[in-house]
């Protein structure tokens, strides 16, 4: 493993603190937050649109700008996810689950504080890990073949068992529906179209963000329209920003767990941030002493999902920078930008372009702190939208969310998809179904199915491929543990208490 | 009075007809008068999008009007192609994509558009397919071929029905080997699986493999092309080692809707031709390791016509039977 010399790092810090770089960093942060708040624009579109602007800049300055933009658009998406139940990007899916219910309790400001603090802490933990162990992590990620990916997805799905505790049947129905929906569209393995009924807009599969917008924003608008109050049911805001920051640091165990999940999911190529947030949320719920509060405005839910998503982004960059394999769509665009600036990814990058890479890393850490500052100065004031009367906020949510749904592909059909999912979400809500298993099913279904096929194609039909490697064995063990957990927990408790 | 009104009406009516009759004639002369839109059939940030945004400012300079990019992703570009077939052929809306993916889509399912109906304008780049193996395995193509003839190897694909798949099918057909194809949803998946030794080889566009080759994880064995790649000068092409494999390069360029008038095409073609010769543009392409390979409207049209029989021949293989 390559040693990082302190010299390189101090030089990088000095470089980032130069006037032009600091300006680029702040500009990238603000631009990123705005892109994140705007409906339908995520990090990918944001970076592609800003590219012509920075083409003539110094490579390191340009990468600092793009890195800050990439990181911060996530935070912008969290703001809308928390306040009006509209995710800016698929990565904000899990933040909605507890963020919005907190707003209903009048604690929108606290929720935003948690999200801002999580961006700072999660991002910093992720970046520090990235700086010191990136080359090693990249080699580890390559050992994941189709069989290992399949088992990872299976492990992730097994978490549903914990999520649905209490309402098992309804939870399993919801998860099954999610898995069924993930089958729709072009089958990458066989080349056939499935369940599209000749409708071209779903040939790529049900578009995830459009479905999310329907399931959360549209459903919520329908619910809000039923009463003449405001999002904040008590009609005022309680709890200040600092209360949120304090609450965050009261959960050190949840923070470390979420950061570890985020980092792990991040380094696996082709597993996105949406899974990172959802998995950390579900894991927190399972470990919690009061799992019933999750999804009803539990601060720990936001802490977990946001810390994990923010730690995921540096993980995403590991394979992108060390090997040139992008971990997500956003990372793919970042990779393209690096190549344009003559920073060719590969293990040699850490010695050949050490100045550029380490100044990027330092800048990303600094961005985390600036994001936090923006959070305490500006973002908290956004919480007042939760006090607006429903007559005003419902049309606004509908217009903004459907506009976002349209803007992603410039397609009217996507608005129809969002509306359909809105109705589905409404029916599920009234019937007492939770949408979380459905989401997990939709996000993980493809990964399970495709990698199962690939593993068997490579092995020539032999099932031994699923348990031959050490990583596979560990994953199988964890999956069994996760499935049996809800039943073993009480027994374990009885045994230990009986011992006393 | 009434007579005068009738006269006036007749005059207006007649001049209206005359205007309608002469307007198509004036099309080429005063084109373009408003911004030109280029439709990208994929998401912002991908290869197609980056190349379109790369050439736009230079085309803008020579057209004298703004050139805008609009992304219409979905169904591998099918949504955009269907819409484009019915677009007004006034030269203000163009489309760019990785040719020949549109033809493959025609053969994979039912479509209402035909790529041969689109009016070719200009192509700026070509990408060639590369056969890569893990750096710890075969050193030369001959060694690879010897093993491939003895047993069925697993080959990674960046997608079933992709331009890469087509190139792969053509190659194994000519080499007389059997391959167990494993499709992924992009080159990132198939190249990283190869770097982790989960596959025996992968075929992908040269630009997608360059970072991993640079990283020392992968070794390129053959470039499916009729000329070597300036960015990979040491990699042999089929001709060098005595094979005759039809090269079907991935071409990126602009096309206009069906029945666009030749005078408009000429204006656009000229602007793009001047754009690819701008030193700044050439410098930009070099950084991206993109091979500039200009094709004029006529040559682009010829490439379209030649691609059809190749796709037709392998159409059954795009889907698993």
- Output the CATH class name of the largest domain in chain B: Alpha Beta
Shape of chain A: globular
How many domains of chain A?
1
Q: Describe the biggest sheet of chain B?
A: 6 strands, mixed
List the strand order in the largest sheet of chain A.
1-2
Specify the number of helices of chain B: 11
Low-confidence stretches of chain A: none
Largest beta sheet: strand ordering of chain B = 2-1-3-10-4-11
In terms of structural class, how would the helical and strand content of chain B be classed? alpha/beta
E-strand count of chain B: 11
User: How many strands, what sense, and barrel or not for the largest sheet of chain A?
Assistant: 2 strands, antiparallel
**Low-pLDDT stretches of chain B:** 22-26
Helices and strands of chain A, in order, run as: HHHHHHHHHEEHHHHHHHHHHHH
The CATH architecture designation of the largest domain in chain B is 3-Layer(aba) Sandwich
The CATH homologous superfamily name of the largest domain in chain B equals Bordetella uptake gene, domain 1
- Termini of chain A, distance in Å? 48 Å
Which helices and strands, and how do they pair?
The complex is a heterodimer of chains A (500) and B (321).
Chain A: H1 6-16, H2 19-37, H3 43-54, H4 59-84, H5 93-104, H6 108-142, H7 146-158, H8 160-163, H9 168-182, E1 185-186, E2 193-194, H10 208-225, H11 241-249, H12 252-267, H13 273-287, H14 299-323, H15 329-340, H16 349-352, H17 354-377, H18 390-409, H19 412-430, H20 436-459, H21 470-499
Antiparallel strand pairs in A: 1-2
Chain B: H1 2-22, E1 36-40, H2 47-63, E2 67-71, H3 78-85, E3 93-99, H4 101-108, E4 119-127, E5 129-134, H5 141-150, E6 153-157, H6 163-175, E7 179-183, H7 187-195, E8 201-205, H8 206-214, E9 218-224, E10 250-256, H9 262-275, H10 279-287, E11 292-295, H11 297-313
Parallel strand pairs in B: 1-2, 1-3, 6-7, 6-8
Antiparallel strand pairs in B: 3-10, 4-10, 4-11, 5-8, 5-9
Helix pairs in contact in B: 2-9
